[in-house]
Amino acid sequence: MALREARAVTRTAVWPASVLGTLLVAASRIYLGVHGATDVAGGLTLGACVALAVTITDTALRRRSA
Which residues, including other chains, have CB under 8 Å from residue 36's CB and lie 6 or more apart? Predict the structure, then answer.
């Protein structure tokens, strides 16, 4: 029970930190002129799609094994 709660707290802390870090890096790429805004938006969109696909696959596999 305690391990399950610890994992939930970790997930709650890690996801927002990951999203914030990603957005800060994306903003810095535009600010520094390394990439254009459309390049960064495309990268963020692709990354979000991959993350969604992994999450859906993980959920399906966990349900199958349970």
Answer: 30
Q: Helix 2-31 vs helix 37-65: angle between axes, to the nearest 10 degrees?
A: 160
Query: Can you give the pLDDT of all 66 residues of the chain as single tens digits?
Result: 566 777 777 778 888 999 999 999 999 999 999 999 999 999 999 999 999 999 999 999 999 987
Domain residue spans of the chain? 2-65
Q: Please, are residues 19 and 9 in contact by the beta-carbon 8 Å criterion?
A: no
Indicate the pTM of the whole model.
0.77
Q: Which amino acid is at 47?
A: G
